[in-house]
From TrEMBL:
This is Ferric reductase NAD binding domain-containing protein. GO terms for cellular component: NADPH oxidase complex. Keywords: Oxidoreductase. The keyword Oxidoreductase applies. Signal peptide: none annotated. The keyword Nucleotidyltransferase does not apply. One of its GO terms (molecular function) is superoxide-generating NAD(P)H oxidase activity. GO terms for biological process: defense response; superoxide anion generation. It comes from Magallana gigas. Residues 1-138 form the Ferric reductase NAD binding domain.
Length: 156
């Protein structure tokens, strides 16, 4: 409901909404664990005519980072995404990644894509290991010149 509300508020012309873009990263161990979320993301994509929401799904559970199965899944997913503009696995426009997210690289790319933004709000909810990793990425990037990342999180 939060995702739907954010997209809805971004479309109201009279409302001064402080966000210009939302990057939503859904990190899950297996594809089966995020299947319940695909319907919600699909609904958001269908009403998000301004492409306000940029969704990335990370499936983290693979035996080895570069085993043959993972490599083939990655190649097929990337090719299908380029050709069809959708994920082979979910049918969503959201990009599916295999492996854990490199939060520092992701945040660097967000910073470079939005050079005029001075402060980014980063919100996360997850296990302490993940939120600590993201917090460390924000801290490291805040030591560099450029926009700052303010991380707010909940652990479960």
């Amino acid at each position: 409901s939060i995702l739907k509300d954010i997209v809805h508020k971004s479309k109201i012309a009279d409302l001064r909404f402080p966000c210009k873009k939302v990057y939503f990263l859904w990190v899950t161990r297996t594809q089966k664990q995020f299947e319940w979320m695909t319907d919600i993301i699909r609904e958001v994509e269908n009403v998000d005519s301004n492409q306000f929401m940029d969704t990335h799904i990370f499936v983290t559970q693979f035996k080895e980072k570069f085993d043959l199965r993972t490599t083939m899944l990655y190649i097929c997913e990337r090719h299908f995404q380029k050709v069809a503009g959708k994920s082979l696995f979910t049918g969503l426009s959201a990009v599916t990644h295999f492996g854990r997210p490199n939060f520092q690289d992701f945040l660097k790319s967000v910073r470079s894509e939005h050079p005029n933004v001075r402060t980014f709000g980063v919100f996360s909810c997850g296990p302490p290991n993940m939120t600590n990793n993201l917090d460390g990425a924000c801290t490291n990037l805040n030591k560099q010149e450029g926009a700052t990342f303010n991380h707010h999180f909940e652990n479960f």
